[in-house]
Amino acid sequence: MGREIKRVALDFDYPINKMIWKGYHNPYRGLKCEACDGSGWGPQAKRINDDWHGFERPENRWCHDITQDEVQALLDAGRLMDFTRVPTNERQRKDVERKIAGGGNSWLPYDNGVIPTAKEVNEWSHKGFGHDAINKWICVETRLKRLGIDEVDCRVCDGNGELWPDEKYAQLCDEFERIEPPEGEGYQLWSTTTEGTPMSPVFETPEALAKWLADTGASSFGSSTATYDQWLAFIRGPGWAPSMVVNESGCHDGVTWGSK
């Protein structure tokens, strides 16, 4: 999810920053399962999942209070690279230097052998980006197993979060195929944080699009924007970027990070 350059017809005209392109809108939707509030979780599993951030019950929030078995589950899944993929000795530092010299990133190309404690991980989770949705799911799944909660999925909707009055509509939903905007010689910026929404007019050249994006302060991510040179490098280069890149130096929007 992020930003994408599409090559569309020069006369393509669709509202900017207002609505999803109609060719991407699946008209078939199920009814939200009221038993699980559309979550797909069983009652006990839903409570543990909801308590991760503690929006409804702040006193039960546990995203900063995970246990050692949950830490181990994250390690087994190759997560927590802030602990396991940073050099801890001279040999590992030289391995990272060689990787960077070869065009790679600054992560150690193998685990360093560190097994962080739950206390260390919980302190880390208060800083920077912390746990993402994948980490959350791993921890929730591990906690459910430890507590012996077998009813993970909602009995009413079988974990789908929605109900279909007629299965033929569910099939039509599954078979829906997106229709792309008309292809052409034009350049246009799209947001992919939704199904797909145009963010700029259509321009004949990368330079014209880059100038418009820089002059209008178009969003590269949230309230962030980019310079003319950064936009131009993005348009001419990858043409796609995630919303955000997270590494050891912090959080960066994908457009400006990819243009470095």
Share of residues in helices = 25-40%
Supply Rg.
23 Å
**Could you spell the SSE succession in H and E letters?**
EEHHHHHHEHEEHHEEEH
Which word captures the global form?
flat
Strand order of the largest sheet: 5-4-1-6
Give a short account of the largest sheet. 4 strands, antiparallel
The total count of helices amounts to 10
Identify low-pLDDT runs: none
> How many domains is the backbone divided into?
2
User: What's the total number of strands?
Assistant: 8
Residue-averaged pLDDT: 91
Instruction: Give the amount of beta strand, in percent.
Output: 5-15%
Q: Distance between termini?
A: 20 Å
Structural class based on helices, strands and sheet pairing: alpha+beta
Topology:
Layout (H helix, E strand, L loop, with lengths): L1 E7 L22 E2 L10 H9 L16 H9 L4 H4 L5 H12 L16 H8 L7 H14 L15 E2 L3 H9 L10 E6 L5 E2 L7 H11 L11 H9 L3 E3 L1 E4 L2 E4 H5 L2
Antiparallel strand pairs: 1-4, 1-6, 2-3, 4-5, 7-8
Explain this structure.
The protein has 260 residues and is an alpha+beta fold. Helices cover 35% and strands 12% of the residues. The strands form three sheets. Strands 5-4-1-6 form a four-stranded antiparallel beta sheet. The longest helix is centred in the middle third of the chain and has 14 residues.
